[in-house]
Design a protein that fits this description.
InterPro entries: SoxD, SoxD_sf. With about 100 residues, the protein is mainly beta. It is built from one helix and six strands. The mean pLDDT is about 90. The structure holds zinc ion.
Length: about 100
């Protein structure tokens, strides 16, 4: 599987570290809403299809990326820096090979 880092270009998945679900929203640090914290820490989506994920290019530029990956085909439809900045044009990469 290839992931296209907006900075480094297409790289093998072995250079990246999965950082988690990109859909979660962290409660405010001072929040005492235990249900919100419980959901943030433990609840996970398990979609069959496109999934927003955070990956770090740990073997490269170390940037955190927002990746949309199809969980069935492993096809990646877009990547972008997780904190705004440049956005990679939508691209298609092959699934698992
Ligand atoms: Zn990179």
């Amino acid at each position: 599987m290839l992931i296209t880092c907006p900075y480094c270009g297409p790289r093998d998945v072995i250079e990246f570290t999965y950082q988690g679900d990109g859909n979660r929203e962290r409660p405010q640090a001072a929040s005492q809403d235990l249900d919100a914290w419980n959901a943030y820490v433990y609840d996970r989506l398990n979609p069959a299809g496109d999934h927003n994920e955070i990956w770090q290019h740990s073997g490269g530029c170390r940037a955190h990326l927002r990746v949309v990956r199809n969980t069935i085909t492993h096809e990646i439809s877009s990547t972008a820096f997780a904190r705004g900045g440049h956005k990679s044009a939508g691209h298609k990469t092959e699934g698992r090979s």
